[in-house]
Amino acid sequence: MTKRILALSLGVVLLLAVVARAESVKDLVTVNEMIPVQVEGVGIVTGLPKTGDKSKATLEMLRKFLSENNENFDAKDLASGNIALVSVFAELQPFGRPGQRFPVTVTSIGDATDLNGGELRVCQLRTGKGDVYALASGQVVAGTGIKTRGIIQDGLNSGAMQIAAYPFGDNIQDQGGFIRLNLNRPNFADATAIARQINQTPSLNPNVRDSYMFSEGSPVQPIAFVRDPGQVAVHVPGQFGNNLHAYISQILDVPVAVDRTARIVINRAKNSIVVTGDIQVNNAVVSLQDKTVTIRPETEAEPAAYALADDTPRRLVEMHGPGSYADLQGLIDTLNAMGLTTNEIITIFEELRTAGAIKAEFVGQ
Prior knowledge:
Blueprint: E1 5-9, E2 18-24, E3 29-31, E4 37-46, H1 56-68, H2 75-79, E5 84-92, E6 101-102, E7 104-108, E8 119-126, E9 132-139, E10 141-143, E11 146-152, E12 159-162, H3 168-174, E13 178-183, H4 188-199, E14 224-228, E15 231-235, H5 244-252, E16 255-261, E17 263-267, E18 272-276, E19 280-281, E20 284-288, E21 291-297, E22 316-321, E23 326-327, H6 328-337, H7 342-355, E24 361-364
C-alpha cells in the first residue's frame, strides 16, 4: 500500500537551528603566508648502470652544466650512461630551521631511462627569487612505473637539508604588513566574528586601552578587516614587526564564538541517519499510515517524557519538548519506540523539513 504522509506545521516561529560554540582561530583558518615554500635546482645523478644520459644533445647539456659548476668528469664517464642531468624539487615547511631534512623529488631532464639506485650529488635548491635555502643529496628511489622520476627520502645522511631559515616575514611585508587568514569554510558570520575578536583583544590590538573604549561613541581603531567571506586581513602593529611568529601564534589561539548550522545526513542506501548539532522541532502533527506523532510544547506542570508506557497506544503518541520546541533526540526516541523503521523515520524527517518544522541542513548521500 502506498504510504500517505501528512505534515502540518502549527508553530508560527521557525527556530534557526544553530549551535554557538567557542573555537580557536587556528581551527577556522589557514594563514596564507604559512604555505610551504617551493625550492628547486638542477643536479646530476651518478652511479647509474648505463641507464643515464646518452644522446649527443643531452650529453652537451650535461657538459655545459658541469663546466658552469666547476665539476670535472672524464669524457668516457659522460658517454658511459652512468650520469644523468636532473631537476630537483622540494618544499620548505613554514618555520623551518637550518639542519632540518625533508624529501625531494628528482626528475630526469635528458634521455636517462632509469634513475633508481643512482646518487644525487650535492646541489643547491633555490626559491623563485634565486635565494639558496637548502642542499639536496642522496640515493634516488625511482617511483613505481616511472623510472625517470624518484624520491630521496629524508634521513640522517640523505635528503634535502635546510641551510637557512626562510624569511617568513618577507611574505607579510610584501602584502603591506598584513597577515591573511583564509577561512577553511568561507562565510561572513565566521569572518566577522574572527575580525571582531582580534580587534577587541588588547594583546593583539594596541589601540585597545580600556574596556570603556568599546562603549558607544568610543570606537576602537581596527587592525583586522573582513575582505570577503573567505579572508580576514590583519595589519601587523609596528611593535610586533620583529616578532611575527609569536604574534601569529597569539592570533591563532584567540577563542571565537561561531555558529554552526545543524546537519542531518541521510543515506537511504545504508538506511542510516546521522545528526550533528542541537536540532529542535517546531510544533507539528505527523501521520504515517496508522501511526501519528503530535509534537507540542511542554507545560511547566508537565515535565518532558519521551519513553512510552507499556499501555500507550502505538498509533497515537504525543511527544513533549522543552520550551516551545521539542528536541530531535526525543523525537527519534519516540519514533523508535513506536517501531518505525529507519526508512519511515527518514520519510518523516523529510516531511517535517518540507513543512518548516525542522530547521537544519539536510545532506543526502
